[in-house]
Amino acid sequence: MNILLIRLRLIGDVVFTTPIPRALKRTFPDARISYLVEDSAAPVVAHNPHIDDLIIVTRARGWRRVVADAKLAARLRARGYDVVVDLHGGPRSSWLALATGARQRIGYDVKGRSWMYTRTVGRPRELRARHSVVNQWDLIEAIEGWSGGRPDPLRDAVEMAPDAAAERTVADRLAQQGVEASHELIVAHVSAGNPFRRWPEPAFTRALTALAGASPRRRIVISSGPSDRDAAARIAADTRAALGSAADRIVDCGELALAELRALIARSRLFIGGDTGPLHIAATTATPIVGLYGPTLPARSAPWRNPAIPTESLEISGLSCRPCEQRVCAPGDFRCLTTLQPDEVVSAAERALRWSA
Question: For residue 90, with 0-12 CB atoms within 10 Å meaning exposed, 13-18 middle and 19 or more buried, which class applies?
Fold first, then answer.
């Protein structure tokens, strides 16, 4: 059986699909699995042992995208897929699924695009408290002959294969910063591509100052996306100023590629961050996590992995405006994040740090 999985766009969404190739191989051991992904999230699945063929596309725009997609469609059709599962559900992915001409084309029941599939799966428009892994699993259950059962976070955890070159790079950078094996390393990711998911800078500064000041063994790496380098630099500078003579507990590893970020998190004692791609990269490791959830729900996007590994998902419950579509803040003050107190984050972090594998 020749199977194509399509999942475009965001890093976290691609992470949530990673149990699927493993489950397909378990159910269809002779299947050849191809995975189509955009270049920004490709490192998540680049070395996945259950994927036989990785197809990487760029996010071109305008006429260049039309030309590129036409060529891609011809390539996909020539490969003779038996089954195509559109894990994305957007206009581009549904059109590419149709273009393959596969006998089984499976996707979500989306108005205006359902006709492109041979079998559709319902996807309610409301924001349900149902995990994204489970939502996407509905699609592979629609494959003829599927007998793999429901997803289990212990058996079907998310994954991202380690990268040896990235591990060496991270080890070198930490050594240059004086970080030793005896240090308790904490990674704090302080940015988010979506402003609705950014915890305020002063809150991060207070929390990181408390964590770093609590033990001379601790070293904290502050990471961010390219668009938030200035914010990360401000948080680092303010935290160092607050720590005074202990300012060297905040270390700088420079800009990190996705595989390098995973390598850094994997050798750390704790990851702290919002509901963004790096948090889900962290979920592919055995590192404890403190997740900060604003407009989103942990029930939908908490780390999907061995439940024995500590995961603290912090949220402000009881808000009538939450969860939201993240297009406009109805109250206007982002209270789902601004009312999350640094002391709560520090307490959750200390609990997680007490765990040992």
Answer: middle
